[in-house]
What we know:
Blueprint: H1 2-14, H2 23-37, H3 57-69, H4 77-95, H5 105-118, H6 124-146, H7 158-178
Helix pairs in contact: 2-3, 3-4, 4-5, 5-6, 6-7
Amino acid sequence: MLRIFWEYRQQLTSRCQSSSLEPQVEADFLAMIAKLEGSHQPINLDIVEKFSDDTTLGELVEAIQREIQANKPHAALDRLHTYAMKKFADLLARDGVEFGQHDALHARAGRYINNLRQTSQIGEYSAKIAKSAVQVMEHFNQVRNNQSFAHDNEMLSLAEGRYVFETVLSLLRFVKALDEAKFGR
């Protein structure tokens, strides 16, 4: 019943008949609904953090957290993609590695991994594993472009969206482990 009331409120809000809630109130309400529904295991978002003074980064992190608390990882994929783009741009800039503003996510991830390999910051096996991470990021670009809210697309199902979301988070954790000194400053 709470979910139905929430959807009704969202319809009113979209027609500007009601004011919007504070982001934390909305996130708490949606988390309560998800908990009552008993339908989701929480996704660990410890890796999604504000890592620079970028003016939009805080809002981006909050938007991702709201969608995850509402058990909608498939709806947060476009924002997770933007987050990953910003993260790899930050890491590359800190290492002094050039990249283009319009480079795809997998290109940024590839440059970052190559830099770690070339500067002997990772070993042979980690480099091989990291190469597969670049391929996953390439597929994530396709998901973002063709199955997320980034464009007028048909969305991934909840289960597929969760799988993609958690896979990307796992890769970000792997990158953090490879480069603990730079990641998350």
